Automatic annotation (TrEMBL):
Keyword Metal-binding (UniProt): no
EC number: 1.1.3.21
Record protein name field: Alpha-glycerophosphate oxidase
Highest rank taxon of the organism: Bacteria
EC main group: oxidoreductase
Domain Alpha-glycerophosphate oxidase C-terminal residue range list: 465-587
The keyword Flavoprotein belongs to this UniProt entry's keyword annotation: yes
Length: 612
């Protein structure tokens, strides 16, 4: 079934008339993953999102399905095991989205280094075992200083000791969300964007019974009845709970802001994702990642108290990242004028948990003395001088150092929490993108238990580890070969080799639907054939309702194809206006919305002018 504006009208009608088993508030990755599981398990499912799907946190990540090697500095084996195993599951159910892309981690002789070459190799070997890639083409290896500089000649050579290379995965975060949403919709779920919750409803027993919502496209307000209401709004979690008049909700979120900057790869060339200490002895690390013909780098991690819907890049963010990257790549000499695009996003961190932050520290990092003792014990174990029980004892008796303080947002947990309030409102918050499916499982188990105990309704949860998202019906072990085959189908219908491959990677097993549009639509004047097909597919099948939806989240055109963006803005707006029969007022409003987004991405205010 198509997922278009016509479907939206049908879904809103159903939301008004039906009593749902579960109403999910929030259309980021956690809400989308939960909606997929709920719909596939047969529950009457609704999801409302006040913005576009993935418009908040879930389109503003570092765009990795990150394995968390750094956790092993603190010997947080359980966290890494969970992360790499779940990453493999996500790659299995969405094989066209996460793609293996080994990470290089240079090691410098400087104060505060996360790893030495020795401890890095131990961590990588353990990481490989946990990820089950020992002995495969993705097994880790080390590089000498000379080998590192041959691979990345712009890297600073002073103090460089060498590097490790280990498996990681690049990701398209907003595409992962929309593919979960589309699958949920195909299974009968009512997935609706631009519908804002304005109140929580209760029955005569003061139990949550739905939500009052406003359709932001029409201005209409209506009630949605639901047996269970699930709050998956990320940074807005406290806002929804505080909207519930039957609760005295204590705030639990401490959002932090992360920033990424994009430059042309001719200015900063890296052959593969690179991850290193900031060099500031601040306990943080930074990614530098190639994408398309660009290089992006980040991230910052600062407390955020502004408008959750519009986090922006500040001068301090730019100064911080440019200082680090120009220090690590001295010949790059990147200035703010070299930044082609950028994004800022919020991390929905929970202030009370004690787990590890995926990119920062830990709420209780181990002391240097204890760390060295563990390393020494492992070294003795590898030489056969002690048994594994000695190693286990060393791990169990790690001494922690409370050097992280409340002033350091990098110390806040990336752990997740599931709370059921006294009136039945369920809130799932925190967590990492990599863990979204497991967070959804936890939420769904709670939902199903309530439906059974309170409503005598029985549902069996699907095995979501084997249930592909939309576009994911490819063999994960042969994804490159199958993608090439799909791309050739596009080439046979008139696309260039590069365009066919681009669309096959973007849409996975849905690519034939996209290619079929060649016979149905005329190429839009001012757009390539590939962009025309993407635009129509986004409107027909992906609920792209505005130019920003299409250019930022259904594709990453604004972020990684900035060179060609200006030329296609008006053709995209004109064709969407024709398709949706917009008034001149609506057309002008969406153009202005896009201009603001591009201006923020371009750092127009910081650069002093918006002329490109």
């Amino acid at each position: 079934m198509v997922f278009s504006i016509k479907r939206r009208k049908q879904d809103i009608k159903a939301l008004k008339e039906e009593t749902l088993d579960v109403l999910i508030i929030g259309g980021g990755i956690t809400g989308a993953g939960t909606a997929l599981q709920a719909s596939a398990s047969g529950l009457k499912t609704g999801l409302v999102e006040m913005q576009d799907f993935a418009e908040g946190t879930s389109s503003r990540s570092t765009k990795l399905v990150h394995g968390g090697l750094r956790y092993l500095k603190n010997f947080d084996v359980e966290v890494v095991a969970d992360t790499v195993q779940e990453r493999a599951v996500v790659q299995g159910i969405a094989p066209h989205i996460p793609k293996a892309d080994p990470m290089i981690l240079p090691i410098y002789d400087e104060p505060g280094s996360t790893f030495s070459m020795f401890s890095l190799k131990i961590a990588m070997d353990l990481y490989d075992r946990l990820a089950s890639v020992t002995g495969t083409k993705y097994a880790n290896y080390t590089l000498t200083k000379e080998e590192v500089l041959k691979r990345e000649p712009q890297l600073k050579s002073e103090g460089l000791l060498g590097a490790g290379v280990y498996l990681d995965y690049r990701n398209n975060d907003s595409r992962l969300v929309i593919e979960n949403i589309k699958r949920a919709a195909a299974d009968g779920g009512h997935m609706v964007s631009r519908v804002k919750v304005v109140g929580i409803l209760h029955d005569e027993n003061d139990k949550v019974s739905g939500a009052e919502v406003e359709d932001l496209l029409t201005g209409e307000t209506f009630a949605i009845k639901a047996r269970v209401v699930l709050n998956t709004t990320g940074p807005w979690s406290d806002t929804i709970r505080q909207m519930d008049a039957k609760l005295d909700a204590v705030p639990q979120m401490r959002p932090t802001k992360g920033v990424h900057l994009v430059v042309d790869n001719k200015k900063l060339y890296v052959p593969q994702p690179t991850y290193f200490d900031t060099g500031k002895n601040d306990g943080r690390m930074v990614f530098v990642i190639p994408r398309e013909e660009k290089t992006y780098f980040g991230t910052t991690d600062t407390d955020y108290k502004g408008d959750f819907a519009h986090p922006t890049v500040d001068q301090e963010d730019v100064d911080y990242l440019l200082d680090i990257v120009n220090t690590r790549y001295p010949s790059a000499n990147i200035t703010i004028d070299d930044i082609e695009s950028s994004w800022a996003g919020l991390r929905p961190l929970i202030s009370s948990n004690g787990g590890s932050d995926y990119n920062g520290g830990n709420s209780q990092p181990i002391s240097d003395e204890s760390f060295e003792k563990v390393i020494s014990t492992i070294e003795q174990y590898q030489k056969g001088n002690v048994d594994r029980y000695t190693v286990e004892d060393a791990l169990k008796n790690i001494e922690t150092s409370n050097s992280e303080s409340e002033a350091n947002p990098s110390a806040i947990s990336r752990g997740s929490a599931l709370d059921i309030d006294e009136d039945g409102l369920i809130t799932v918050a925190g967590g990492k993108l990599t863990d979204y499916r497991k967070m959804a499982i936890g939420a769904m188990k709670a939902v199903i238990e309530i439906l059974q105990s309170d409503f005598n309704l029985s549902y069996e949860l699907i095995d979501s580890a084997k249930y592909p998202v939309s576009g994911g019906e490819l063999n994960p072990q042969e994804v490159e070969e199958e993608t090439e085959t799909l791309a050739q189908m596009g080439v046979e219908k008139g696309l260039s080799d590069s365009a066919g491959l681009y669309l096959a990677h973007l849409y996975g097993s849905n690519a034939p639907k996209v290619f079929a549009l060649i016979d149905e639509v005329e190429q839009v004047e001012g757009l390539t054939l590939a962009d025309t097909l993407s635009l129509y597919y986004a409107m027909d099948e992906e609920m792209a309702l505005t130019p920003s939806d299409f250019l930022i989240r259904r594709t990453n055109h604004m972020l990684f194809m900035r060179d060609t963006l200006n030329a296609i803005i008006e053709p995209v707006i004109a064709e969407m206006a024709r398709y949706y029969d917009w008034t001149e007022e609506t057309r002008a409003r969406y153009r202005k919305e896009l201009e603001i987004a591009i201006g923020e991405s371009d750092l127009k205010n910081l650069k002093g002018d918006g002329n490109r």
